[in-house]
Amino acid sequence: MIADYKSSEVPRRYLCADCGARGVKLWRPAHDDSPLRCADCACARGGIDGLPINAGSIDQDGRRPSSYGRTDQIGMLLPAVPDEEGAGFWGYTSVPDAGVLWWRRLPSRRHASFRGEE
Ligand SMILES: [Zn+2]
Questions:
Q1: What is the span of the domain harbouring residue 34?
Q2: Is 112 inside any structural domain?
Q3: Average pLDDT, rounded, for the chain
Q4: What is the mean pLDDT of residues 32-43?
Q5: What average pLDDT score do residues 14-26 get?
Q6: How many angstroms does the Cα of residue 24 sit away from the middle of ligand 1?
Q7: Rounded to 5 degrees, what angle do the CA atoms 21, 27, 30 make?
Q8: Residue 20, in any domain of the structure
Q9: Which of 19, 41, 80, 115 would staple 28 via disulfide (CB 3.0–4.6 Å)?
Q10: Whole-structure pTM value
C-alpha cells in the first residue's frame, strides 16, 4: 500500500474491512496493519471500556472528546497513515507532517447513504 500525500486519492486496498468504505479516514489496531476500519465501524465495536462510541462526535480532523481530552484514537485503534514507500503504516508518534495532513484531509466518516457499493 503506497500513499501519495500530494494526492487526495487513497491506495487501492485502503478500505474498511467491515463495510468496504473507501476514500475516508481509516483506523488500524495498535500493533498490526489490519484490519482497517472506518470511523463508523470502529465506533460500533466500542471503546476500551467496550461501550459503543458516538461516531457523530468525530470532527473533521478525526478527533473526538474522551475522558483524556480530544483524541484521534478510537478504542484501541490508531489513525492508519500509510507511508509513501509501501512499507506499511507509520507508528503513532512517527507520522510525518505531510502524512498527518493527508489523513486529516480525508472525510472522517463515510457518506450517510453508503452501502458498500462503488
Ligand atoms: Zn466501515
A1: 26-105
A2: no
A3: 92
A4: 96
A5: 97
A6: 9
A7: 150
A8: no
A9: 80
A10: 0.91
* The amino acid at 94: S
Q: Strand, helix or coil at 53?
A: coil
Is residue 71 in some structural domain?
yes
Is 52 within the bounds of a domain? Answer: yes
State in Å: Cα 38 to ligand 1 middle. Answer: 4
Distance from the CA of 116 to the center of ligand 1, in angstroms? 9
Distance CA(85)–CA(9), nearest Å, equals: 16
- List the alpha helices (DSSP H) in 1-118: 39-45, 97-105
Number of domains in the chain: 1
Ligand 1 centroid–CA 111 distance in Å is: 11
Quote the pLDDT of residue 68: 84
Instruction: Say how many Å lie between the CA of residue 98 and the centre of ligand 1.
Output: 25
